[in-house]
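Fold sample X.
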Amino acid sequence: MNRVAVQCIKELRQFVRDRLSVALAFGLPALSMLLYGFATRLEIKNIPLVVQNLDNSALSRSFIERLYTNEQFVPVRCPGGDLVKTVLNRGIAEAVVIIPPEFARKLRAGLPSPVEALIDGTDVNNARVIKNSIIATTNSFLDIEGLSPFRPLIHPQVRLWFNPGRKESLFVVPGAFGIVLLIYPALLCALAMARETEQGTILQIYASSLTASEFILGKVAAYVIVGIAETLLVLLIGFVVFHLSVAGDALLFTLGTLLYLIDACLYGLMIAVGAKTQNAAVQAVAFGGFTPALLLSGYLYPVRNIRYPFNLVADFVPARYYIELSRDTFVRGAGWAGQWFVPVFLTLVGLLLFRIARKRLGRMQISA
């Protein structure tokens, strides 16, 4: 253990002397948290909508007002002389609603009065949201005006249980913790290892009495300490900037975060053992770590939406489980009863990564 501690202290001293690594360790995570927290928006708002009113009655104007007061649509005027459909072709608006003549008279007489809605289907998800919003707004308008052809016997009372204010930051920011705390510790550890290979100082390790296990433990311990400092930084941003609060078990989150940081550092070291240059190590970490963490972890969309065979790969992505733990800690609050498997999985992943890294490094020591 003494030699592991010495190796850890040596790594920390080298890290502190490298200003670029310090900036990478703390500047980029802080910037990433702000970018993810403010730039990632899953709820569609401010959708440009053009309405052509061919009836111009009080009822039709009331319907238009209802469309624009649902906090999703913003009015856009059709350019003079252009047909309404050309607004979609030019990208001026994403939806067009055409109210037919005699709209009010037919509704008052109990007759159907079809309203045409043209939606830009370039973005399928966006088009689905616009369609559902127009349908829901129309049904609400008919109900308020007393024009519904029937009265439903069931009136569901819907309540948002964990996030009644519908704050997107409660979903986005805890998920961003999983991305930031994976990529930067892994990247720092990979760069440190690749630098040893690139500069030839790794040969001193091979010539010393330090074993592969002691070398790995010492290097990983150093960058886990750096990762803990990064964790405190991103948590501070989450609490102060995005007003997060702990809803679950803080002890479980602390344990899960520590295991996650160990996994991240072991992954970066394992990748860098076989890398000849720092550029190669960075590319390998980015492709093998960041891409799956972003696309296969449930950060942007539910894992159940991922298609075969990548849904099987998602089951082995550590970021998926850590993001679930993070969101439980800051939003749901189930604690150990719902998230006990996360530290178990992260421990198994860490043991596997350590075994692979030790085997690869041990082979290099023998060949050296």
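Fold sample Y, listed below.
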Amino acid sequence: MKKAAEKQLTLREKILESIRDAILSGQLNPGEKVTEPELAERFGISRTPIREAFRQLESEGYLTVVPRRGAVVISFSEKDIAEFYAIKSILEGYAARQACVRLADREIERLTAINDRLRLAATSGDVKQFLKIHDDFHELFSRSSGNSTLCDLISTLAKKFQRLRIAALGYPGRMERSVAEHEKIIDAFRSRSVDLSEKLVRENAEESGGLLIRKGEPLSSHPTS
């Protein structure tokens, strides 16, 4: 039973990665259908793990499951992008403000170590790995704010709009700039500069949103019939 469960998990992960990669690479466009029968035939499995994968991808902002239509690639408008990054900047900025006076020296050193890992990930060009480490950085200072409800809100929001964040980080030079922005944030934490730490964290979020809007990231279109 355990091996069967592990095999199903592996298949579900393969489905998740396959759909994510197809959307991020433009093989699947905003508004396009993702059909269960096609995936079931492709992976040689039942529709149950496919539906489970669809639910997770819906929570990550890749798909929306429409009654009688199935799963459709989510379309993001410029307004959606602007609203997400505005909320993200406010919540994370407030978390940074609260964390600034609470962070222990050892936690600030951990932030430095995480940012060193980010620098290596940026050099390799691995956006997905960069995002995972990036989340570790932001989660550390968010948890240090002492506000668990705030942390949960930030985590839920970041997960729902994961696709936007990967798209922003994928632009040339964005990962390297993010590392440099984090260095300034760490310095602000180390000097206990409350106002500056909030300002820098908010700017870190706003830069990614502004980049997507300026570049006209193709994350919206008319749904296919």
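Sample Y note: The chain has two domains: 2-73, 78-215.
Also: DSSP finds ten helices and three strands in the chain.
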